[in-house]
Design goal:
elongated; four-stranded antiparallel sheet; about 350 residues; Immunoglobulin-like; about 15% helix; mainly beta; nine-stranded mixed sheet; 16 strands
Length: about 350
């Protein structure tokens, strides 16, 4: 898994916040528990993770104190039986095991916040998934037999027009615009594109050097118009926006010298359920008045989101010398102390 489960569009913590402290609970009532599910299956990943937690409320108890208690959030290993069923064109194919793991032991740490961060209980799928199939998750409470289900059709592969896997260099120094384009994916309705800018930062006092990465959100919540894979998703960006991104993301520091390394692009296409949740969130803040409901969930017997996504990654793209020189000597980023290209008469830099 190249990115944390909750990296894309919404975080697991955000989903838990939405569903773990419901406003319609009777604060003087008995303890109320509901299963909360967050999962985005991607057939391109060798490992998929699903977060399964529970809502909580106890009379006369501070909800923030409850949130900090892992026992109030996570199920123990023997409390739930979890598995997937794979279906293709309405025909059952197989049952896929889902295992209980602590993300902390796998280097998957939960973000800091109100909710307990450790242990970080996840449900892991290591079986390869079929992009043409639908998957139903079954969550069974072993003590009661109560069954929670949700189904999603996987987002399939899609073609990249720019950048593509054959792209080797990228140039931001030219004037004008850059158009990022991909084909719409089957079963997808929402799209995202991010870029990683990788650079070395050397402390001239200590001699220490570290590789750093900053992330640029280029396309966010770009809506598709069909789930059949027809047509394209395109987004136009002024080339100089790249330099504004660098200037706003990297602090000036007289004690360092920086070297631009390369960039990575990450496209994501999200399933219909992600799109429905997105619309619901807009409706609840008054942006889309045509789609209003008090709460979105596609989990039967529980709460949350079970959907799919597919990510495509174009990595290690080099920067043209003109871009490197513009970073080092341009009016927007020239004070960040980046090295120019060796061919530049001002080498090693314009600001030192």
């Amino acid at each position: 898994m190249s990115h944390p489960l909750a990296k894309w569009f919404i975080s697991g913590i955000m989903l838990a916040t939405l569903f773990s402290c419901e406003s319609d609970f009777d604060i003087n009532g008995d303890y109320i528990e509901k299963v909360v599910v967050f999962g985005l299956l991607d057939y391109g990943e060798d490992t998929n993770y699903i977060r399964i937690e529970k809502t909580f409320l106890e009379a006369n108890t501070n909800a923030i104190l409850l949130a900090a208690n892992s026992d109030q959030i996570f199920y123990t290993n023997n409390e739930l039986e979890v598995y997937l069923e794979e279906w293709n064109n309405g025909i059952y194919q197989r049952t896929i095991p889902v295992t209980y793991v602590d993300g902390d032991s796998l280097g998957l740490e939960k973000e800091e916040g109100v909710f307990s961060t450790s242990p970080n209980i996840l449900y892991r799928i290591t079986t390869p998934l079929d992009s043409t199939s639908a998957y139903t998750i079954y969550i069974i409470k072993t003590a009661t037999g109560d069954t929670i289900t949700a189904t999603t059709q996987l987002v399939q592969n899609y073609h990249l027009y720019f950048p593509t896997y054959t792209t080797s260099y990228v140039n931001f120094a030219d004037t004008g615009k850059m158009t990022y384009t991909c084909k719409q994916a089957v079963n997808a309705m929402l799209y995202e594109l991010t870029m990683d800018f990788n650079y070395y930062e050397k402390n001239v006092i200590t001699g220490d050097s570290i590789l750093k990465t900053i992330n640029w959100q280029i396309v966010n919540n770009k809506e598709g118009d069909n789930i059949e894979g027809n047509g394209n998703i395109s987004y136009v960006v002024l080339r100089h926006a790249f330099f504004n991104f660098l200037a706003s993301s990297i602090d000036e520091n007289p004690d360092v010298i920086r070297t631009a390394v390369n960039v990575n692009y990450h496209w994501y296409a999200g399933g219909k359920e992600v799109y429905d949740l997105y619309l619901n969130m807009l409706a609840n803040v008054g942006i889309n008045q045509d789609y209003i409901s008090p709460e979105y969930t596609n989990v039967n017997g529980g709460l949350g989101l079970f959907s799919s996504r597919h990510g495509q990654h174009v990595t290690n793209l080099s920067l043209y010398e003109a871009t490197i020189d513009s970073i080092a000597c341009g009016s927007i980023t020239g004070n960040l102390k980046f090295l120019s290209s060796p061919a530049n008469p001002a080498f090693p830099g314009c600001s030192f």
